[in-house]
Design brief:
There is one protein chain. The protein is mainly alpha-helical. It folds into 2 domains: 111 residues, no CATH class; 124 residues, no CATH class. It is 54% helix and 5% strand. It has a 3-stranded antiparallel sheet with strand order 1-2-5. A two-stranded antiparallel sheet has the order 3-4. β1 and β2 form a beta hairpin. α2 packs across α3, α5 packs across α7 and α5 packs across α8. It starts with a helix and ends in a 5-residue tail after the last strand.
Amino acid sequence: MTITNIILTILVIGIAGYLIYFVIKKKKTAEVQETIDVDDKTYTIEKMIEFVKRRLDEITKINLYDIGLSEEELKRRKNKKYELKKALKGCTYGDVNDKKYVKELIYDILAKEYGVTETNISKSIPFDVPSLLTAQDKFDILIYSFKKEFGYEALTELIKKYHLAELKYVDGETKPSYVITSQEIEDIYEKENLSLTFQDKLAVVVQRIYQKYKGYSSIDEVRDMNIDGVSGRSFWTTRKFFKPSCTNRWRRLS
């Protein structure tokens, strides 16, 4: 073998080794590197749900043995992957701890990976323009705020404070019933005059994303509430949560 051939062989081996090292290093430093194209719809709930679904799917399906992790890091990632799979399964059955785990992960994904900030978060829910908030928006914000103080008694406290547990007539119905109307939510929201931090706003957005992705739509949060000592999941009807004239309907257990 000539000197030229030896040099070429060494050069090829060196290039191959560098390429292998580069690929392993790239995989090791990040499971997924994704450039987010920002436009007017980037920070809408729908777009963020798409990203969260894709990101959680990537975390649960990635082959950890292919990305050159150290033994300690491999163990840590495997535990995280297992916990997420378990939580995603458990939260569909209403497990509050699994629900909390998934929501915390969604919070981190939005804040650290998707780039949600104080400036753009109102593109998902118009927190800074109350007149643009829907009854659902205001109810979600109210429940979140009451939950910070009262935990799973939040709905009970809201009902007690504003005397909402009264029979009333709703347009189009001949019999009175227990309802919370959209107008009542509008009035309560104005009276509460809430001041939300960025963290508060993001938590409300996370709940909205979670309930559309893994939860029980608009009744998701109230299912976990204690109402007169009874779990909300056995207390609330399954009919559509919001109506133009009626925010929610409940029935007394016999």
